[in-house]
Amino acid sequence: MAGPEHVQTDISAEYKAIWDRGLLGAGITIAVPDTGAGEAARQFAAEQAKLGRADIPFGQLETIHVPGAPADSDDGGEHAYEVLRRILFVAPAARVLDLPIFRGTPSRDVIMRAMDIAYEHDADVLNMSVGEKVPLAMVEKHYDECPLGRHAEAQVTKRDVLVVAAAGNFRTENAIGCPGLAPGVISVGAYLSPEESRWYRKYPHKAQEDFLEGWSGTSFAAAIQSATLALFRSAFPGIRAATWNDIVFASTYGALVRAAPTPLDFFNYLGDICGGDWVNSVQWRELRAIGITRRRQLLAASKLAGKEIAELPTLLELQRKRSEQFAAAVRDFVQGSEQIDDLSKEIEPIEHFRRAARGFAALSLNVMAASALLRAGAGLVQRVRTPSGTLNMTFAIEGGQALTEALDLLATTTSPEKAALDGAILAWRARSLTYCADLDRTGNDKAFVDAERAIKILRGLPPSPANAKDLAHAELHLARAHFFKAHASWLGRKRAFAAAKEHAQEALRLSGATDAYTKSEGEWVVAHSR
Amino acid sequence: MNNAELDVAIAEASKHDNDYLFYLLGSNVVPGVQPQSGRQAQKAGKDFFERFQDELRKSVCKKDGPYEQLIKGLAQKKDLPKLVALAILSGAPALGGVAVTTVLAAYIGLLIVNSGLAAYCEGGNKGGRT
Hints:
heterodimer; A: alpha/beta; Rossmann fold; about 60% helix; disordered N terminus; B: about 130 residues; mainly alpha; two-stranded antiparallel sheet; 8 helices; globular
């Protein structure tokens, strides 16, 4: 009988592409309330050497005493050691907080205190490879009485700490772990590739043996998932913990498999959607594992909602439809992105973006919907000058409308991505308005307002290549607004030209001459502002 | 206690070896929040089984208990898991604050029978451990 090693995937190969992009978890703090690795943590250096990855700088590992919890662990720290080892393997440069809380069964107060300490020490991700078994039939009552789940949820919603919890090893017991059952917490279930799964179904006895002999179980799946999400948080620092939860939820249950032509996961698309620069593949199976668990959570949620188990097929069907809707929206977004630069395709890519926006909005993913509308609006505005060279003002007007819709969608969100998106959208709307200025004098006045608002917002954000590009764009359209104002009236013309020149030069400086449109338009404004 | 329920529990538990029975026992007897690993739960099950050896032995190896029935030829080998489980349910309905359910009794009964009932009871009489 072939051993399971024949089917196990080498996870280092799966992560290599991510590490090669320089994503090692640097700047991210992962807190691990557990048995406490203690002295065993010193072995990490040896582990690192074994992996032959001495080139990767290990992040800090700090042990922090939790008041009320014993300083020593009851198992020599083996459990925490195995959890931390996996976290540091996936996100080697992350700062990891080792919070010992176990000797026997810790009180819930101690566990909640550990969560607070994690927050006080700037945790971005909280790994809870621990849980309390809750039969699904008791979920409603338990959640009402379970401060642990609510406290975990508050970390996500109020403190922006992403909580990843073990779903618990209760497959055969129709139960789920707390805090894993809490809404807002990413609950991680099985950690098996399809090959492994098939193999173990064939040899169920071996499955039990491996489960007990190795350090396996949802504790360790959670550890790998925490570290994976830490890599993503370092890649997309603007996305809040609660948004990650939505993204993970919306993307699971097979949606991505249908969305992607290859096992390229949706984080590829996320890079586009969120304006990030990083594009790469991730642990496909891990996402699926979350999907399985979220399905379990749906079972639990159905009890919370007071629904009968008989209604579950309907709920699962709803979730499947939701996933398909997400998949379709992502597919549209990708197709729109692929076609957007081909100006001979006038409306097709715009329609893709509009459909994507409708799909995301229906799933209450307003930031993604606004991103899609931004792409639609920007695409339309870009098409104002058609290949024939004539101005097509319909595009400018429709583009402005799409951008206004995007701003309206963002008005209902509080996500941190909002400011950057607002800035980018206003900059594009300013451009559409400067085109409209030829038709309607008030268009130019509005362009001033939008461009100045965009500049104010974007200057208030931490510097990044994406923000600099949007800022250059906003400066350029403020320059264009001044330029049109100078042409519209003799009154103050000299001052308006001077302002146009000044803002165009600023746009050129900010864009670093890498953006062809800003370069040519900026230089044109500078040359003609006299 | 429902006899049929015990039969089902024993039939289910019989599919597993001792290591997995310890895991199942551990995941059922530890209250509150625990690390979610198989090994950790297995260790908890072994600890529980060891800790309550004396109480279990008293129930199983007592006069007229399953062991005596076995050596007097009053019980068949195939019935032993059920007899041991019944003896535990009546003699040790709670162990260290944990209520012994039908399922727990089935796990413990099988663990005792699998390790050899004679060795278990005789070993206990000699003051040894299983």
